[in-house]
Write a sequence for this structure.
């Protein structure tokens, strides 16, 4: 009986040692200097209603217009501008394209309130600037990707997604993404 207890203790000790030795590896994989983006408009993985179809601010066609706030951290030191791309993961749909934004903070409704501080592309609704989530059938997942750019991008308001991709090529220093679901009621 004593041998079995000693054997159990040894096995548990080995498991504990192996488990603890893995912790530094996991922690080392998270790079605190890597650029990140966060949003107070996304809580527990869900986009707040006011940034999509259940929000109260819409254009004449019923398209949600209040863009969510974004905070960028740890952008590379050589970053001069930021670009933003928001799209629906469930279906191919562009919700927002913006370039040449200087601030690390996109305030709430920056697409309209800070429109003069950036150049904005055409979304899949056919309008310029932010067009919030309007999932037609079920809850959809959306990705917001932020790019740190080393120089200004030569685009005019109303540019397309393909023009966006060409323009940022070779100018991107880092990227960061955040995802959120917009819940269909």
């Amino acid at each position: 009986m004593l041998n079995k207890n000693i054997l159990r203790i040894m096995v548990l000790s080995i498991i504990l040692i192996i488990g603890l030795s893995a912790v530094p590896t996991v922690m080392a994989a998270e790079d605190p200097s890597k650029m990140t983006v966060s949003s107070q408009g996304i809580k527990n993985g869900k986009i707040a209603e006011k940034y999509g179809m259940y929000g109260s601010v819409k254009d004449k066609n019923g398209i949600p217009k209040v863009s969510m706030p974004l905070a960028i951290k740890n952008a590379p030191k050589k970053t001069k501008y930021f670009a933003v791309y928001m799209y629906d993961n469930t279906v191919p749909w562009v919700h927002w394209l913006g370039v040449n934004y200087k601030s690390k903070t996109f305030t709430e409704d920056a697409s309209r309130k800070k429109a003069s501080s950036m150049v904005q592309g055409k979304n899949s609704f056919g309008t310029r600037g932010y067009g919030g989530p309007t999932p037609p059938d079920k809850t959809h997942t959306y990705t917001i990707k932020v790019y740190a750019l080393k120089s200004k991008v030569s685009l005019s308001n109303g540019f397309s997604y393909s023009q966006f991709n060409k323009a940022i090529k070779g100018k991107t220093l880092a990227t960061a993404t955040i995802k959120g679901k917009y819940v269909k009621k």
User: Anything to note?
Assistant: DSSP finds three helices and ten strands in the chain.
